[in-house]
Design goal:
single chain, 406 residues, mainly alpha, 17 helices, globular
Length: 406
């Protein structure tokens, strides 16, 4: 019980919800204006601006994919609160400095630094799980999930609004200040009971050792599901580096471009949040495999025409429909991974799935910049639709478990 009479786990939950919300916001709020900010940092051609924007956006996720296992091992050895504090203050400094850069390469370096300090969300979640009574654990984890999901969803809207109200540089300062406030709250209000177990640490295997996959009932299915995660994530992120440029073109360079780009960027996530329960209940009735196939088919249909319309409203509708389709893919992949994974390897396989999402974000960001440089913005959507089509064909052809129940 805390001094205020409130249980310690509830105080932890409140503070860490704020921390994960701000961390989620910090990752996603740059989407509406990132390429516009890059354009202010130098003279770029149309194609090179898309390429550099993709590199700037991808830098964070490249580092996340590499360092996530390292941070997990560090937390096991030294405590999750210590890691939470280090990553929060590191993120605050990196994001604040983004408002002071004078060229695109400085921004790339700081985006990479932001990826290096991307341990706030997983360690806040782990700390909540460890410090909450078992009978309240499901409730607490559900609440903490809304923190970072809400931050990711509202980040682009908030970022676009702040950039329009103040300036892009001021947006970074505000976010950095909120992260520093989160650091102070976590330092003085979050409590952790942590004891190092030297024997457990000694027996830990490397997080990079994937030989455990041989013990799975169907390692091929697991591998293909991870590949599908990469491809779907790549499709979702392919438009992010150029979204503000595309919206600017559709709006003829007039109006609240960053605000509109932020709303359009958030629509897939909002749709996923709304549609996931529906797909989940339907999957329970007709089979998860069928839902996964439907999700791929609908995504292909809705991605393809996005680059051929000149209306921002139509683009927004199609992005929302893509989000509904993705809601039939992401959760089903998670469900199938859980069903096909031995109990002792669940943590490892979901760590790999998180890394796959980061890799997909990198591939998508770079792909969006590269394809738009060659085929303009419409080429990004067409290429993504074709990539998902190839993924669907390979799943149908190579993975019998996917096709057997539909």
């Amino acid at each position: 019980m805390s001094d205020s009479g409130q249980p310690v786990w509830r105080k932890n939950l409140l503070v860490l919800w704020f921390a994960t919300f701000i961390a989620g916001t910090g990752f996603s709020e740059v989407i509406p204006f990132l390429s516009l900010y890059v354009s202010e940092l130098g003279k770029f051609s149309h194609g090179s601006l898309s390429m550099v924007s993709g590199l700037v956006y991808a830098a964070t996720f490249v580092v996340v994919a590499v360092t996530a296992p390292m941070w997990g091992r560090f937390a096991d050895r030294h405590g999750r609160k210590r890691l939470l504090l280090q990553t929060t203050i590191g993120s605050a400094i990196a994001i604040t400095l983004m408002g002071l850069v004078t060229n695109a390469w400085q921004l790339v370096a700081l985006r990479a630094a932001q990826g290096f300090f991307a341990g706030v969300i997983p360690n806040a979640t782990a700390l909540v799980a460890a410090e909450t009574p078992k009978k309240k654990e499901g409730y607490a984890l559900g609440i903490i999930t809304t923190g970072y999901v809400g931050g990711n969803l509202l980040g682009p809207i908030l970022g676009g609004f702040l950039a329009g109200l103040f300036s892009i540089r001021v947006t970074f300062f505000i976010t950095g200040g909120l992260l520093f406030l989160s650091f102070l709250l976590s330092l003085f209000m979050v409590k952790e009971t942590f004891k190092t177990d030297p024997k457990k640490i000694k027996n830990q295997s490397s997080l990079f050792d994937i030989h455990f996959l041989r013990e799975f009932p169907n390692p091929k299915l697991t591998a293909w599901l991870l590949v599908s995660t990469i491809i779907v994530q790549a499709g979702l992120y392919s438009i992010y580096p150029v979204i503000s440029l595309f919206v600017k073109e559709l709006m003829n360079n007039h109006g609240p471009i960053t605000v509109v780009a932020g709303i359009i960027s958030s629509l897939p996530g909002i749709a996923m949040l709304i549609a996931s329960p529906f797909w989940g209940r339907l999957g329970d009735r007709i089979g998860s495999n069928k839902i996964l196939i439907y999700g791929f088919i609908f995504s292909i249909i809705f991605y393809f025409p996005q680059g051929f319309f000149t209306s921002v409203i139509v683009l927004g509708i199609l992005r929302f429909l893509v989000g509904i389709s993705n809601a039939a893919i992401y959760p089903i992949i998670q469900t199938l991974l859980a069903k096909k994974t031995p109990a002792g390897s669940t943590g490892m396989v979901f760590s790999l799935n998180q890394a796959a999402q980061a890799i997909g974000a990198v591939v998508g960001s770079m792909m969006g910049g590269f394809i738009s440089n060659i085929f303009d913005y419409s080429g990004v959507f067409v290429f993504t639709a074709l990539l998902l089509l190839v993924n669907l064909i390979l799943l149908e052809w190579r993975v019998p478990e996917i096709r057997k129940n539909h």
